């Protein structure tokens, strides 16, 4: 499987968190963006190196990001895009975890 979605989401979250901080001095944006980005980055590294729980970590980061971004989705194109990206990444990693754990 591929680590690219997790690593891409890591970059998006970190850039988004820093951008939110620069534009509005929002410390919660900085902390949340970099925090979720670090989880995605760790997950991508685990997936790429064959470590444990990489897919589960990426799924957890997707669920956290989706839950945090849904209430803000109507505020503009960037929150909406983040909501859609987290939903797509979550669906990908949910299927991957399901196939790994339960499919024969």
Automatic annotation (TrEMBL):
Residues 1-24 form the signal peptide. It is found in: Membrane. It holds the Pfam family Tmemb_14. GO terms for cellular component: membrane. The lineage of its organism: Eukaryota, Fungi, Dikarya, Basidiomycota, Agaricomycotina. InterPro entries: TMEM14 (IPR005349), TMEM14_sf (IPR044890). The keyword Ribosomal protein does not apply. Its main location: membrane. The keyword Ligase does not apply. Keywords: Membrane, Signal, Transmembrane, Transmembrane helix. Belongs to the TMEM14 family. This is TMEM14-domain-containing protein.
């Amino acid at each position: 499987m591929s680590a690219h979605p997790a690593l891409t989401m890591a970059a998006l979250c970190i850039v988004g968190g820093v951008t939110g901080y620069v534009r509005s001095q929002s410390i919660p944006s900085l902390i949340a963006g970099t925090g979720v980005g670090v989880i995605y980055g760790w997950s991508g590294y685990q997936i790429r190196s064959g470590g444990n729980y990489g897919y589960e970590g990426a799924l957890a980061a997707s669920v956290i990001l989706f839950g945090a971004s849904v209430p803000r989705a109507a505020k503009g194109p960037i929150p909406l895009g983040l909501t859609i990206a987290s939903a797509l990444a979550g669906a990908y990693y949910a299927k991957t975890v399901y196939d790994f754990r339960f499919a024969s």
